[in-house]
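Input record, target 12 of the design panel.
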């Protein structure tokens, strides 16, 4: 991308809903006293700070490709260190004890190669933990794809959104077991109850829509959002208590084998 498309303020609106999968993921990581912990794609850093609090004796680093996110992360009071870097080119300076990636790898077409590299960089007994959205067949994403491929928008947005950018849990099990890891993988569908006027549009505005809106001028951004708003309101009708928004996520925790003596 030619510029930083991530808006920390928009992304943070649903921070509680976005942090819950991180907590569920990390509950399955059994590292006791790691020396070197990395949060790959750390965003604005709040969850990296949780890693530093869990393992106070560890060197904890977070990196993200968004300068805006890292600028926010560096404002936090924590011993964790933050840097701008890309998951496809980042390299650790020593063996990793824990590497975590929370809802990032869906943006990386070659993320299976990235995972294999991270396993290679793990110390014996080290941990790799990641979660990715598994909701790309949900009404929200179908509506976005259909709108992007419509006659009005296809010349600018055709091909921007991939149909299914992540693998299923068994594929990740095969990949990481083949890399010498013991693997725990599962999926969960959270039903978030969102508040406000067409809140699903607000949710996707902080994630799925960012690369799309980046290709449009302000006027077209507004028109695209208006068209999508109607589709989402129809797919996710509000109830008296709010708007239920089912969201499937895929979780993987892998521990690298310890070499036999």
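The sequence produced for target 12 reads:
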């Amino acid at each position: 991308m030619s510029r930083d498309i991530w808006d920390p303020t928009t992304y943070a609106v649903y921070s509680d809903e976005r942090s819950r999968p991180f907590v569920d993921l990390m509950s399955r990581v059994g590292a006791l006293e790691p020396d070197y912990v990395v949060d790959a794609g750390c965003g604005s850093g709040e969850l990296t700070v949780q890693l530093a609090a869990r393992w106070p004796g560890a060197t904890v680093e977070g990196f993200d490709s968004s300068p805006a996110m890292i600028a926010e992360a560096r404002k936090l009071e924590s011993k964790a260190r933050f840097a701008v870097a890309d998951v496809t080119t980042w390299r650790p300076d020593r063996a990793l004890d824990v590497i975590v990636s929370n809802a990032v790898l869906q943006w990386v077409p070659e993320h299976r190669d990235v995972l294999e590299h991270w396993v290679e960089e793990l110390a014996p007994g080290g941990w790799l933990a990641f979660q990715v959205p598994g909701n790309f067949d949900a009404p929200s994403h179908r509506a976005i794809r259909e709108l992007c491929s419509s006659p009005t928008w296809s010349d600018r947005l055709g091909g921007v959104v991939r149909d299914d950018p992540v693998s299923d849990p068994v594929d990740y099990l095969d990949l990481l077991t083949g890399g010498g890891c013991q693997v725990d993988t599962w999926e969960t569908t959270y039903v978030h109850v969102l508040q406000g006027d067409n809140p699903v549009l607000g949710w996707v505005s902080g994630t799925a829509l960012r690369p799309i809106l980046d290709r449009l001028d302000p006027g077209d951004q507004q028109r695209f959002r208006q068209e999508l708003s109607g589709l989402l309101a129809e797919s996710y009708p509000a109830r008296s208590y709010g708007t239920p928004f089912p969201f499937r996520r895929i979780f993987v925790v892998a521990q690298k084998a310890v070499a036999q003596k």
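Strands lie at 36-40, 59-64, 81-84, 96-102, 122-133, 181-194, 243-256.
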